[in-house]
Each structure stands twice: as C-alpha cells, then as structure tokens.
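Lab notebook, bench 4. The sequencing result for the construct came back, and we need a structural model before the next group meeting so we can plan mutations. Quick request posted to the team channel:

Model the 3D structure of this chain.
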Amino acid sequence: MLETNHILIAERDELLRQLTRIILSSAGIHRVTEAISYDDVWAVLRTSDIDLLIMEYIIDGESALDHVRQIRDGHAGRNRNVPIIILTDPDDEDWHDAWVVKRATRAGATACVPQPISIKTLVPAVLDGLSRHAAETGSGAHIVAPTGFASGSSSLD
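Done. Here's the predicted structure in token form:
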C-alpha cells in the first residue's frame, strides 16, 4: 500500500534528497518527487496530489514555517491538509529544538524530524503522517509499518 503514496521532498542539498529517497524506499515508498526550492514546492502542490510533504526548515534563507502557514491557509489548493514533516537543523541547545518544534506546531506542521535524518527517525514520522492523512481523507487506506518499523514519537500532538 505504501508504494501508491506520493511524497514530495523539499531539500536544497542533493545528497540529503538522495538519502531521504533511500530511506523512503527502504519503507516501501517509491513515488517521490523532489524540489530544491519553495517555488518548486508550490508548482508541485498546485498541480499534483501529494500524500505527504517533507520540507527542510530553511531553504535559501526562507523559513518553511511561512510556507506551512500558506499551505494550511489554502494556497496549495487541494493539498491544504497534506501532512508536513519539517526537517530541523541540529542544534546543541535543547531549548532551541523545543522552540523550533513549538513554532512548527503552531504553523501547522504534522511533525519535526531532526537532522541528520535516519531510518529510525524519519520512517515513523512518515508512517504516522500517512496514517493520519488516510484517516482524514477517508481513503480507507490502512498504513502498515514494514517489518522493523513502528509508529514513533516524532508527531506533534
């Protein structure tokens, strides 16, 4: 069932986009579109149905949170309620990470995953986001975690 989900990755670094694609592939997700700028993100959101969006926190000096707010306000058309995972930059200060997560939650993000990403941090957040999206859209899809993966604690309830 995961192979039918369409994931959009917004990440400026090619190696990180490739790593994200490999991690998603390991979970059985192969339908992935890549974006290197927020302009690319908007072009895809306006023309394609997306099941989940993974966005880098900052691209070219622009905050993902402004774009998350615009998506939630309906500027992405039919993708208004798409689950959004924000990839946060690593920081040595726990208070800063908590502050970023709080801001992301307020903006409408579904989850935050700290970089550097790994299978253990990204896949549970993706599975949780896809499950929520299936439940909200009434698609009837039941997302089952591949062997070795379980729902994680990266969602922002």
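The chain has a mean pLDDT of 87.
Will bring this to the meeting.
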